[in-house]
TrEMBL record:
Domain Tyr recombinase: start-end pairs: 204-383
Gene Ontology biological process terms in this record: DNA integration; DNA recombination
Keyword entries, A-Z: DNA integration, DNA recombination, DNA-binding
Family according to the record: Belongs to the 'phage' integrase family.
GO terms, molecular function: DNA binding
Organism expressing this protein natively: Rhizobium mesoamericanum STM3625
Entries under CDD domains matching the protein: INT_P4_C
Domain of life from the UniProt record: Bacteria
Domain Core-binding (CB): 100-181
Gene3D superfamilies: 1.10.150.130, Integrase, DNA-binding domain, Intergrase catalytic core
Family annotation (InterPro entries): CB, DNA_brk_join_enz, Integrase-like_cat_sf, Integrase_catalytic, Integrase_DNA-bd_sf, Integrase_DNA_bind_dom, Integrase_recombinase_N, Phage_int_M
Protein name as it appears in the record: Putative integrase KpLE2 phage-like element
Length: 398
């Protein structure tokens, strides 16, 4: 007589291993204490040898499930197939299938890029972009994905008006497919068939005054600003130091060593997610000391008068609008392009020192380390020269 659920529930651990048969080689093995568990086994003969096939643990594999597995094993035996060998082949196929899904290749690609030393910001952006594609492509074998399938997540992004994000998503998906080709998991990159299929984004550049005469006029306007003194101070520091606007707006007093004339921007606030030190010329130190008299009792250098939170980028851009500069002429971010252009045109400073001061990423890890160390002395001199040059431009006659 075979087993029943009632009999199975009544089985207790024993001091010696016991088998409880259900017929046709199927039995439940209860190991000797202290080992726990109750395991389904199927005894059978293949090729003249006695063999045993594991079918899972009770109660996670029920009696009905175990009998179904027995029936399937008997079917394989009737076809001259060893059930144990077939089970091994099925596991290998399952692992292989998982390793060749879009998700698996994407994860492998991200690991590879991470080992190459890409910036945290770059890695975060790639992960975010690929997460947009995973719901539609993730579980599909990458070698079977066609261009029309890739178009599905791209159209979803486009439908929200994010044309530039859709373009970058297509490019990132293409990188995953090229990695799949290189690792013999796909034969070609189907995204090449999507060229021209996406809506082209409108390219807009941050406006900046990069000619000396125009920039000099801007400086005179900034120094003549009659609005809030903290806004004037922030715009003046944007001219002297040309950081990213968010780096200055969110600056806290603890980041500044005014005695050593160094501003250390913490890694979480920089675009490249690494700490960036900037030398402070005396002109910038004076502005900061004056500002500290106003806000030194607060954590932020430039708090809003109403909320005590940092001023917004609209505050700086709004001030530029009130000074008469349109969005097509100048933005707060444009101070960086102005400084970069004029510093490079001067011919006095090495391009790498200028790039290091701008906190732009170098070609590789070695170059980035070299920027931080070897160019510091040159950057200190350049900061002083640039501050003096700004003062000279402000004093120029119109």
């Amino acid at each position: 007589m075979g087993l029943t659920d009632t009999k199975l529930r009544a089985i207790k651990p024993a001091t010696t291993a016991k088998k409880y048969g259900d017929g046709e080689g199927l039995h439940l093995l209860v190991p000797a204490a202290p080992r726990d568990g109750r395991f389904w086994k199927l005894a059978y003969r293949f090729g003249g040898k006695q063999k045993t096939l594991s079918l899972g643990e009770y109660p996670y594999v029920s009696l009905a499930d175990a009998r179904e597995k027995r029936t399937e094993a008997k079917r394989l035996l009737a076809q001259g197939i060893d059930p144990s060998q077939q089970k091994k082949l099925d596991k290998i196929a399952q692992r292989h299938a998982h390793a060749t899904t879009f998700n698996a290749v994407a994860d492998d690609f991200l690991a590879k890029v991470g080992k190459e030393g890409k910036a945290d910001a770059t890695m975060t952006k790639k992960r975010w972009l690929l997460d947009l594609a995973r719901p539609d492509l993730g579980k599909r074998p990458i070698s079977e994905i066609k261009a029309a399938e890739i178009l599905v997540p791209l159209r979803k992004v486009e439908s929200q008006g994010n044309y530039e994000t859709a373009r970058r998503l297509r490019s990132t998906i293409s990188q995953v497919f090229r990695h799949a080709v290189a690792t013999a998991r796909a034969e070609y990159d189907p995204t090449t068939n999507l060229r021209g299929a996406l809506t082209a984004p409108t390219v807009t550049h941050r406006a900046a005054l990069t000619e000396r005469e125009g920039f000099a006029g801007l400086l005179r306007a900034v120094w003549g600003y009659e609005g809030a003194p903290e806004t004037k101070a922030a715009l003046s520091l944007m001219a002297y130091l040309y950081p990213r606007p968010g780096e200055l707006r969110l600056a806290e007093w603890e980041e500044f060593d005014l005695e050593a004339a160094i501003w250390t921007i913490p890694a979480p606030r920089t675009k490249m997610r690494r700490e960036h030190r900037k030398p402070l010329p005396p002109q910038a130190v004076k502005i900061l000391r004056d500002q500290k008299d106003l806000t030194g009792d607060l954590p932020y250098v430039f708090p809003s008068r109403l909320t005590r939170k940092p001023i917004s980028e609209n505050t700086l851009n709004g001030a530029l609008r009130r000074l008469g500069f349109t969005t097509n002429e100048m933005t707060s971010h444009g101070f960086r392009a102005s400084a970069s252009s004029l510093l490079n045109e001067s011919g006095k400073w090495s391009p790498d020192a200028i790039e290091a001061e701008l906190a732009h990423i170098g070609a590789d890890q070695v170059r980035r380390a070299y920027h931080r160390a070897a160019y510091w002395g040159e950057r200190v001199q350049m900061a002083q020269w640039w501050a003096d040059e700004i003062d000279a431009m402000r004093a120029e006659t119109r």
